[in-house]
Amino acid sequence: VLEKWVLDDFRPNLTIILDAPVRLALKRTRRRRQIDRIENERENFFRKVRRTYLRRAEAAPKRYRVIDASKSLSKVKLQLQEILAPFIQHYVDSNESASKKSSDLK
Fold first, then answer.
1. Is pTM beyond 0.85 here?
2. 88-97: pLDDT as tens digits
3. What is the distance between the alpha carbons of residues 106 and 23, in angstroms, rounded to a whole number?
4. pLDDT for 39-79, tens place per residue?
5. Looking at residue 47, what DSSP letter applies?
6. Within 10 A of 21 (CB to CB), how many other CB atoms are there?
């Protein structure tokens, strides 16, 4: 309900989920800084959140990409590059095409 109220029908073209087992994610979070109110929730809360996002990704695979964030930082970066490069190129090509059409009309 909140999402519908805030976003209405707006949906991003791409949503990237950095997925890792809950215990690993919490361990990493707690290691790097002081935890906030959300990060202080119980593991069960994070399991539900993770499950919800993974279900969304499964229901809309063209819009969601799931990255295995349990891997090393260099492997996560590589996965991000593999996802983002063609996505960005598509929009660069689209903008160039639109610019050419616009200049052809002049």
1. no
2. 998 888 877 7
3. 59
4. 878 999 999 999 999 999 999 999 999 999 999 999 999 99
5. H
6. 13
